Amino acid sequence: MPINWMDWSEEAFRCAREEDKPVFLVLQAAWCPSCRRLEREFLSLPQIADLVNRDYVPIQVDGDRRPDVNERYNAGGWPSIAFLTPRGSVLWASAAAEQAQIRSMLLQIRTAYATH
Known about the structure:
This protein is α+β, with helices and mostly antiparallel strands. It has five helices and four strands. The mean pLDDT is 95.
């Protein structure tokens, strides 16, 4: 099962608030080879998709199409990964993070968010 990506919208953040889940934001660009590699080699893995779909509200944004989101959440390059509160505050962000680091943060943020 693929990740059920949502667009950057009030609806996505309303869903995060109603379900009391953090947001998993992937900020990318269509021309970015590292972004395609992240999608192909990591985000498409069934165990990652299951974890993201279960514990997060996943939002994928093309930084070229949404320069406002890019300016606010880009962590210094593409892809940028950010974990946000349901109100849009950054919990953790990184540009071009290693897959092991992203996997670790998926688990850590999920646990920390659930206990705080």
